Amino acid sequence: MHRPISHPITAPRAAAAAAVLLGSVLAGAGTGGAQQSPSVNEDFDASPGVMEPGPGGWEVSGHRYGTHDPVRSGAGTIGNSNLSLAAPVFGDVGIEARIEAEETQGPWDDFSVVLGYQDPQNYLYVSFNESNDATTSGIFAVVDGVGTELADLTTPFEGGTSYTVTVTRFQGTIEVYTDYQSSGDAPLVSVDTDLFPTGRVGVGSRNNAVFVDSFAAGEAAGPGGPATFVPEQGTWWNMGPLEPIAGGWTGSVLDDPITTGAGSIGNSNLAIGEMGSPFPYWDTDSQIYVNDVSPAATASAWDDASVVFGYQDPDNYLFLSLNESNDPYTSGIFSVVDGVGTELADLDLPIRGGGTYDVRIDRWGDDIWFYLNGQLIAEAETDLFQHGRWGFGSRNNAASFDPDHIIVWP
């Protein structure tokens, strides 16, 4: 099974999706409402937040998010060797970043703002560089791995200097501004394009180490330069109430568990979301983020908690099991079909009872990826349950889950 560097989102799927995103972007979030683009607003005070690191060794240090092991692509190439991405923004988009390219002895220090990202071979970006040639400093498209300059940017941006840059895309027109311009100034560069109207947003560079003080993105309110978009416009999260299926639940806390003992695959305790987006979402590529998964600490060596997805009924579903110990019946990605459980992928990474964990599950077609605290831990492949409800469970243990940090995309 091939794991993509990032997740391809096609325009037809994305246009129909209700996107929501996890992190500090939840200002104004509620339990329902109109389906909107996500918004991003990261100041990197302690963590990368919703930014997913790609090539370049991205990490937070000193309240800045940067590449600490940048990839050098060399001259004569169009594209970004270093990338870090957030979720898709649909339709008109505004991006504002406080960003700096590391100063080097060379005259080609660069950083990029990325939009319309589909996959490593297909996206748009704005390149900011000390110097200018046909492969850098401008608005670029990468289509099937082939880069093209759509518009040239002649303004130099020096390495070692922080700039606040704004990139807006409104009704097909991309415009670029920076903080040294006055209100009402014409954009530094602009171009009309119908490529990639929906896609992920982020930052990168072709060659350089890059440091980002802040990154905000959201639906553009209109053209015309800085501050015309609202990065905290509001998001939509879709927890809904939980339906207890088995075990004693108080909301999202399992405080009176049923104990099955060893030798069984499945969840004696189940609670499933009553409403909101399913996960998976038919044949649409999907993600679910679940923060603060915590199995209760006991004297046993088998404290466990599960995230359930593709749920049809108590005898048919998929689930991710986290456990202090590991055997063929727990700690892994499992299916339950007609009441019979099968391990799809083993998870040889013990957790501890009383610990708190952040879980992310991606489902792209038949492929499933599981991330724990931001790290890819396990992969599985199955054509089972391409559409279904999601929720929580355990085989034996009491456990708790944070219902305010449950995000399903799309």
Task: List its salient traits.
single chain, 410 residues, mainly beta, 8-stranded antiparallel sheet, 46% strand, disordered N terminus
Tally of helical runs: 1
Counting helices, strands and paired strands, the structural category is mainly beta
> Spans of 5+ residues with little confidence (pLDDT < 50)?
1-37, 230-239
Helix content: under 10%
- Average residue pLDDT: 80
Strand content: over 45%
Distance between the termini: 23 Å
Rg over CA atoms, rounded to whole Å, is: 23 Å
Main sheet, how many strands, which sense, barrel?
Answer: 8 strands, antiparallel
Summarize this structure briefly.
This protein is an all-beta fold and 410 residues long. The protein has one helix at 11-16, and strands at 40-42, 52-53, 58-61, 64-67, 82-90, 93-101, 110-119, 122-129, 138-143, 146-152, 163-170, 173-178, 189-192, 198-205, 210-219, 242-246, 248-250, 253-256, 269-273, 286-295, 304-313, 316-323, 332-337, 340-346, 357-364, 367-372, 375-381, 389-394, 399-400, 406-409.
